[in-house]
Amino acid sequence: MADETTIPAEVAEVTAIDADGWLKAREAILIDVREPQEYEFEHVPGSLLHPLSFLDVDVFPDIPGKRLVFICAAGKRSVVACKQLQKAGFTNLLSLTGGIDAWREADLDLEGTRFEAHDYMI
After folding, report:
1. Does the residue 7 lie in any domain?
2. What CA–CA distance (Å, rounded) separates 29 from 48?
3. Is residue 1 a part of any domain in this protein?
4. pTM for this predicted structure
5. Of 19, 93, 117, 119, which has the fewest Cβ atoms less than 10 A away?
């Protein structure tokens, strides 16, 4: 891990299409930093919920050999999460450009209560 004087590099970003390919190839882990109610409403299947409001760099797991892709609603909180973890010495972190909005616009899989309610609408 880096010392406290290390200045984080710019946050690398990734598109939804690229991130989806990495997830399918098991080369990445998708970490959703939104709040639980946002995640419950709509999330990427297989993503891990780790709200930014509870992010603790001292207990965040180091996962070697995997890209860690962070997602939020539009791409701002995921950048903040990456910067906090970079400052603590973590590497291989990426922010999903445009967040879940971009994921939805790319017509990639989503699940959650938003879709369960829609299934029963006439």
Report:
1. no
2. 8
3. no
4. 0.86
5. 119
99 in Cβ contact with 12 (< 8 Å): no
Q: Is the dihedral of CA 61, 57, 73, 40 positive or negative?
A: positive
Between the alpha carbon of residue 65 and those of residues 73, 78, 109, the distances in Å are: 26, 20, 25
Assign residue 23 the CATH number of its domain. Answer: 3.40.250.10
Residue 5 lies in a domain: no
Q: Count up the domains in the chain and report the number.
A: 1
**Which residue range(s) make up the domain with 80?**
12-119
User: Does residue 53 fall inside a structural domain?
Assistant: yes
Q: For each of the chain's 122 residues, which pLDDT tens digit applies?
A: 444 444 456 899 999 999 999 999 999 999 999 999 999 999 999 999 999 999 999 999 988 899 999 999 999 999 999 999 999 999 999 999 999 999 999 999 999 987 655 555 55
Joined together, the tokens standing for residue 112 give 């959650």
